[in-house]
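Hi F.,

I've been meaning to write this up properly since the lab meeting, where we talked about keeping a consistent format for the predictions we share between groups. The idea is simple: the sequence comes first, exactly as it goes in, then the structure tokens exactly as they come out, then a line or two of notes. No screenshots and no reformatting. I'm using this chain as the first example so we have something concrete to point to.
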Amino acid sequence: METYNFSIKTDKRTELIDITKIIDDFIFKSPDTAGLCLIYSPHTTTGIIINEAYDPDVAFDINIFLNNLVPKNNNYRHSEGNSDAHIKAAIIGNSRMISYFDNKLNLGRWEGIFLCEFDGPRQRNINLLLI
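Output, unedited:
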């Protein structure tokens, strides 16, 4: 097993950030040419998704939909004022597992891996585990 950690500085309260290249670069350098990559964000107000990365409007639309689905102000009881972020993270999930072959992520033609920020801007950590 091999691990890798990196940080991302987010710029907005809610946004989807394509982190595919960073992960691809790590896998390219790995001595293991094939396996599984676990991508994990150790934060209660972020998520990880795999979706279309070719057209940035897809990430924009996903973000808008989630903001409409779970509005920021909805008489939540959590005193920190970020209940919407926790709910979005619970819906999306904070990890994904993907296979890789020949030191390359096994993504579909248009797919990418995104960090979903729901309570930014912040410094976020991403942990990778190659199995």
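Notes:
The radius of gyration is 15 Å.
The chain has three helices and eight strands.

If this format works for you, I'll send the rest the same way.

G.
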